[in-house]
Amino acid sequence: MTTAAMLLPGTAQAGRSTLATTPKDPLAITVTQAADGRTDATAAIQHAINAARRADGQGAGIVFLPSGRYRVSRSILVPPGIRIFGVGPTRPVLVLADATPGFQSGVGTMVIFTGGDQYNVGKVPVPVTTVVPPRDDVRDANSATFYSAMSNVDVEIGAGNPAATAVRFHVAQHAFLSHMDFRLGSAFAGVYQAGNVMEDVHFHGGRYGIVTEKTSPAWQFTLIDSSFDGQRDAAIREHEVDLTLVNVAIRDTPVGIEIDPGYSDSLWGKDVRFERVSRAGVVVSRENSVFTQIGFDNAVATDTPVFAQFRESGKTMAGKGRSYRVTAFGHGVAVPALGAIGTVATEAQITALPALPAPVAPAIRALPAVSDWTDARTLGVVGDGKTDDTAALQRAIDTHRVVYLPIGFYRITAPLKLKPDSVLLGLHPALTQLVLPDNNPAHAGLGGVVPLLETPRGGSNIVSGIGLFTGRINPRASALLWRSGADSLLDDVKIMGGGGTPTADGLPLGAKSARSGDPVADNHWDAQYPSIWVTDGGGGTFADVWTPNTFAQAGFYVSDTKTPGHVYELSAEHHVRNEIVLDGVENWEFLAPQTEQEVGEGMDAVSLAIRNSRNLLFANYHSYRVTRTFHPAATAVQLTNSSDIRFRNVHVNAESAFASCEPAGCGTYVRASKFPFENAIVDKTRHVALREREFARLDLPATPVVAAPTAAIPGIGPVRKLEDGFFSISGAAVDARGALYFVEHRFQRIHRWTEAKGLETVRDAALDPVNLAVEASGKLLVLSSLGAEASVYAFDPAAPKAALQVIPATPAAAHPDATTLLPVNWWNNGEFRDQYDAKTDHFTTLGEMFARDAATAKPLEYVSPDGSLVLPAFRVWQQGTPDHVGWRFSDTLDAYGFVRGKTGSRVFVSNESEGRTLSGLVGAGGTLTDLKMFTERGGESVAVDGEGRVFIANGQVFVHAPDGSAIGRIDVPERPLQLIFGGADGRTLFILTHHALYSVRV
Question: Is residue 216 a contact partner of residue 237, using CB atoms and an 8 Å limit?
Answer without folding.
Answer: no
